Amino acid sequence: GGQLRLIPLPEFVRRKDTIMKTTQELKELLYKNKTVADQQPDAIAEANAFCEGYKAFLNAAKTEREAAAYSEQLLKQAGYKPFVPGMALNAGDKVYLINRSKCVLAATIGERSMAEGFHLNIAHIDSPRLDLRPVPLFEKDGLAYFRTHYYGGIRKYQWVTIPLELHGVAVLRDGKSVAIHIGGEEDDPQFIINDLLPHLGREQGKKPLNEAIPSESLNVLLGGRPIADEDCSDRFKLGVMQYLNEKYGMTEEDLISAEIEVVPAGKARDIGFDRSFIASYGHDDRVCAYAELAGIFDAVSPKKTAVCIFADKEEIGSEGVSGMLSQAFEWFMGDMCRTQGVALTDCFANSFCLSADVTAAYDPNFADVYDKRNSSFVNYGVALCKYTGSGGKGGASDASAEVVGKVRKLMNDNGVFWQMAEMGKTDAGGGGTVAKFMAQRNIDTLDAGVPVLSMHAPYETVAKLDCYMTYKCMKTIFEQA
Ligand code: MN
Ligand code: MN
Fold it and tell me: Rounded to two decimals, what is the model's pTM?
């Protein structure tokens, strides 16, 4: 007794009729990647039309607060009602919650019990930028500046000598909150960070790219005209405060309780003679957020409850009360589950999440850092990523073959053109998304999103067909059985 033996599995029998012989038949065995335009030419017109709404979203939403506010308007317009904890929820009901003005959670209640899980799509609406320091205002040698502290992964040299705007909110000493928005209107002033002229840049030019512009020199030029009283000190600072006081009722101390973001000026623009691309600030990750929103609006009677989330703080590790590590997520989801007497943990165990975030598009000008066969290409459709992370998959949630297989089949069955992508060569670097934080919650998760050229630059480039396929991907996820 005590002997443990494996029972042999039934022998695999190869079916004779599936053996291929001709070259043409054999070629069918290979994985091929084709542009969306080659596979579905009529998608071009649909993508162009879809992207007009996306460009309007980009222009209205240069910060997470603005993206949340604009999304709330779109949600209301589409019939979504503010979520009230404990409210009765029936199939077809549409609810939303804005967490601290920075994070959007919206749900279309499905026909099935929440015990069978949700279909989640999660994008983020924060983008790399320059934040003002708490005490930002200073003057030096006749010029007034704001000191900045960069947010997220930026290449500092890209942020000098481009026009900038100030967007944000200040909570004044009386507790009132004022929205700050300077630089976006035609007759507004704008701002700039200056750089050295080439004539005197000999030493600077020898420095490595990442060291040539140190953080301490990312100071935003605000003005250079002193107030009239020649005997007064701080005359240039006072010139700035005079403007802020007139327009917003602010004192310098009010800047301490302000969140003012320095963002690139200008609007989203079509790029190329064929207008196949859009350049804009903040594609990462408002491109997936917009696709999600359009996807949940257009999803036809979702079987499982469809949940669309726009998170904040992804660019700095998903921390904070409005990031995906926050219990605000459990609070919203738990409340929805309670209305049906369902345990949140049971719901999570049966849920599926698409971590909707952009990925690096292959750039022929920098071919060295990519593994071409494992890269995403602009105009080839939505990019699925089995894993992100860096080095030996450090920090990746690494979706299983079963999850990748399920999504791949779902996309193929629903005419969504997709490609599989890693970010680049293993030793070149890496990055992360919210995927691992969803997987930690016992939710099967896969990364998917739009390939981006010059990701994290003040102006990023995406292809319209990829935006459109990402929308179709989101819609399909929400509609799946
Ligand atoms: Mn991102
Ligand atoms: Mn990013």
Answer: 0.95
